[in-house]
């Protein structure tokens, strides 16, 4: 039956105002660089079946019995190396990106941020947007390369929230942007600017993407192809024939075979074969985080220098750079087409 306004039940929710919401989402990070908060964060992250594709009956005893008793202490020490006055770099930068987008998109659009693991959680932030009258929401996972372990799990989480709703908001998702000209141009501009500001001329620019188990490529996940395409387009756009560009995959986790070549062994091999000056960039991360500030900038530098390298620089992610924010605005405005 159709209800008229007079017939609506007393407890009917207020009629919405038709606003548009944007939810930018990144991975998540611990609340503090201490063992307990890191254990909670890793417990949620590594229990996600999109991340660890091993049956729970097998995986949970390994996770609870071994990994969560050993890794949090070591990871917390690594987080302490990069922690800032504003907290975890990933959290602080994501918050600044959301605020910057809000300023660029104006009052017609309400921008919030969320993390897939930890706080602010995706369901709570979607609820906040809806409570503020947003009945159309763009979900924007800030992962340029599609991966089931990152992009898909964000969409799953939003879908779980929608499933519980009688009156759903309309949801759109920002597609992966690994080959989007706005992204390639932003990277080329920003990395070019950073290379020119270095006090040495690198022989090699290493493009390090987060790794994934080789099995996910065999099963059809496009992540590896997306990373390779980004690297190819970026190399062409940067047009620096004097710099040799190499694509690698970092952060191997567990004993299975991961995508190759690995960042750490490539850094060592380059040092050993006589490369003296090397810069490293991480185009797959939209914000600097543990993986860039500790694994690349601290550990990577040590690995390269111990193998004979002399000059090493880690270039920043797009973060809140002009090029990066303009790129996000362009892609989000395009996706909101028809809504604004
Ligand atoms: C950019 C895309 C990412 C993919 C793909 C990805 C896959 C993936 N990661 C792990 C395990 C860990 N990753 C960790 C940190 C971490 N990972 C990403 C991004 C991707 N991960 C980011 C942005 C971060 C940094 C978070 C921060 O707080 O700064 C960690 C935690 C740190 C540690 O203990 O080493 C783990 C563990 C797996 C298993 C995986 C795919 C299967
Ligand atoms: Fe990761
Ligand atoms: Fe790592």
Automatic annotation (TrEMBL):
InterPro entries to which the protein is assigned, alphabetical: Ferrochelatase (IPR001015), Ferrochelatase_AS (IPR019772), Ferrochelatase_C (IPR033644), Ferrochelatase_N (IPR033659)
Organism: Erythrobacter westpacificensis
Location within or outside the cell: Cytoplasm
Main location: cytoplasm
Keywords: Cytoplasm, Heme biosynthesis, Iron, Lyase, Metal-binding, Porphyrin biosynthesis
HAMAP family: Ferrochelatase
Cited PANTHER family: FERROCHELATASE, FERROCHELATASE, MITOCHONDRIAL
Biological pathway: Porphyrin-containing compound metabolism; protoheme biosynthesis; protoheme from protoporphyrin-IX: step 1/1
Biological function: Catalyzes the ferrous insertion into protoporphyrin IX.
Family note: Belongs to the ferrochelatase family.
Superkingdom of source: Bacteria
EC number(s) from the headed UniProt entry: 4.98.1.1
A Pfam family annotated for this UniProt entry: Ferrochelatase
Protein name: Ferrochelatase
Residues the entry annotates as binding Fe(2+): 210, 291
UniProt xrefs under Gene3D superfamilies: 3.40.50.1400
